[in-house]
Amino acid sequence: MVAAINSRSKFGETEEESIEKPNYPRNILLLPALNSPYLFSIEAVHTNPVLPDSEAKTAELQRAFAMFNQVSAELTQAYEALQVRATSLTEELGIANGELRRQYREKEALSERLSSLLDALPAGVVLLDSSAVVIAVNPAAMTLFGEEMLGRHWGDVARSSLEPTLTVGEWLLGDGRVSIAESTLPSGDGKILLIHDVTAAHRMQAELERNQRLAAMGEMAASLAHQLRTPLAAALLHTSNLGQAGLSDEMRVRFSEKATGQLRRLERLIQDVLLFARGESIGRDVIEAGDLLAEAAQTVEPLMRERGLGFSVTDGCEGAVIVGSRKSLFGALVNLLENALQATPAGGKICLSGNRHGDSLSIGVRDSGSGIAREAQARIFEPFFTTKGQGTGLGLAIALGVARAHGGAIALNSELGDGAEFVMTLPVGQVESGAE
Hints:
It is a single chain. The protein is of the alpha+beta class. Helix content is about 50%, strand content about 20%. The chain has a six-stranded antiparallel beta sheet with strand order 2-1-6-5-4-3. Strands 8-10-11-13-12 form a five-stranded mixed beta sheet, with helices on one face.
């Protein structure tokens, strides 16, 4: 048996190799003789031929597993950080959504309140886009202009419904009167028009002015009686002299002229009183402001030369027009010029000027007289108040009434010893497309 084993070892087969053979059962253990000369004759390389490669592969596999473990740990940490970040973002998103919902509810409630406010607002509100097309209105505006105004150009709506008045920003709408104020949207893409119905306020103002005139008439009754009695008594005296026997024709003519003069003075006084009490009925004349200055200057210039006064006219009206009563405005301006003429001594100067300032026109009459005391300035526009020996004392009161009737006013600037200046301020008329 040993011989057989030795013979197999001779041909390069080991015991293990023999076991692998199919003809040898695996449960048979073949051991060589301990004293066999062939036991240690096998080269060392054949005892474990794959050991170096196996160790290298094992080391490489261990390095791969270590790298895998490291990457796996890093991925685990990144995943955990991502989970934390996702949780944080979810919470932040929930808070942001809650805030957005709160803001939305607040804005929705504000929108409802504004909508209710606009619906209940007695003034009309019109929203225009950048092309001046009506895109939204409230019920009050629809009541004034009708529902068909939606989608129309505001200029077309204004031309078909509105007429200009003497007051800047106010228009006639049918039998009523409205004021229109506009403001540009913060985005600059349109405008908002706020329309107030001022019909009742205008009527109340007219009634108030009428009552004030009637009250003034009551207060000046005593003064009026005195004013009427003086020229009437003078006229009666002069006419009574006409019946004297032996009166020459020259004296008769002289008394007749004096009586006629007093009667004319009385007539003028009565006309002024009626004009003041009745107030001005404003017309619709379109008046060039420059032409009005020239006409008034031409009327009083001969009187200025006769009194030896310097007279100048400065026209800075820039083509402005006034809509109203030409006769009333002319009379008021002449009243101011005559007042200046009577207050200016010979050799003095009077200046008539007109200047435009945007939507307003100022007409000034300045003299180089002695000026007006402050205590007199407070009463200068009162009916029958006068600082002159002659005159009715109604000229300035009537001029002020004319200015107010045209939507303007008259201001006085005066210092003692430095003359006086009366400035009539009037709105510039809007004749064409004023509502656009």
